Amino acid sequence: xxxxxxxxxxxxxxxxxxxxxxxxxxxxxxxxxxxxxxxxxxxxxxxxxxxxxxxxxxxxxxxxxxxxxxxxxxxxxxxxxxxxxxxxxxxxxxxxxxxxxxxxxxxxxxxxxxxxxxxxxxxxxxxxxxxxxxxxxxxxxxxxxxxxxxxxxxxxxxxxxxxxxxxxxxxxxxxxxxxxxxxxxxxxxxxxxxxxxxxxxxxxxxxxxxxxxxxxxxxxxxxxxxxxxxxxxxxxxxxxxxxxxxxxxxxxxxxxxxxxxxxxxxxxxxxxxxxxxxxxxxxxxxxxxxxxxxxxxxxxxxxxxxxxxxxxxxxxxxxxxxxxxxxxxxxxxxxxxxxxxxxxxxxxxxxxxxxxxxxxxxxxxxxxxxxxxxx
Length: 375
Fold this sequence. Notes:
Elements: H1 5-14, H2 22-34, E1 40-41, E2 47-52, E3 57-64, E4 75-77, E5 98-100, H3 108-120, E6 126-133, H4 141-149, E7 154-158, E8 165-169, E9 171-180, E10 184-185, H5 195-212, E11 225-233, E12 239-240, E13 243-252, H6 258-270, E14 278-283, E15 294-295, H7 301-310, E16 314-317, H8 323-327, E17 332-335, E18 354-356, H9 357-374
Parallel strand pairs: 3-6, 3-7, 7-17, 8-16
Antiparallel strand pairs: 1-2, 2-6, 4-5, 5-18, 8-15, 9-13, 9-14, 10-12, 11-13
Helix pairs in contact: 1-3, 3-9, 5-6, 7-9
């Protein structure tokens, strides 16, 4: 049975996958089996299937099937949603080029393109693997597991890039700075050590971290970003708080890693802390992976071939991505139809998420041509 991009894409967008990916994974597996391909489900629930000769060059195609909440219904229309619109299904099932709904561009549009390319390419001297992860929007254990268990000579990771070939992305990890003081009665604050009061110089020190200790400007990704995002502390209005926690978001650039950052930030902040207090810096979810920053040489064959096939530009990707897990194994690019944002505002993860079917078809053709040339 011939694979039909609009039909599969519609079914995928209509299938909620923000709470559970089971139904969406079944749709993907059934589609592959209908095409005569028989995928495996690995230990993390990823869908993996290969075609071609194991002795030649190996290209891996990856994207994800989970989405952020809430689910938004499928619509097809001739114009993108406006700035104040929420996709609610009232746009109907027209014949326009625009498909709206949750996951339309992130990442069921890229999924449809990669699936079409996988099913229509015939490797002559190598192998192509479709490896679809299940929890990219949350813990990313699926993508990390794929990178640990499948070796390839090149990786194409499907995300909305507007058909540009993205060769680099900042890393993203979250953590906490916890200030440890000593509680006391608020009527006698001098008998304790107020952790909330100490947060003020620590927040200032966080602002100066990248100037004094950070990795500096990366030639492709620019400067890293450190953003305090929450401050919590205290247990009662009449008590000196013994603890205050600052939650942060870090967007890293090479060569910084999540492990090295925490140690370096703690050493920097401790210089600003009163002698009577202590602090600790740690990652949130330390037992799950975080996407590190990565950068692929723009002159690699994979980059040049995909750029020629797509006609897009070569640039960095604007968000953290599972591509970072593959980048330590070989040349890795992020590529796909749709955009993270447009001239109006946010698209991916937003109430007006959409993709152009023409871009999905172009992405499929570009990936197919690239894989054919490489394997």
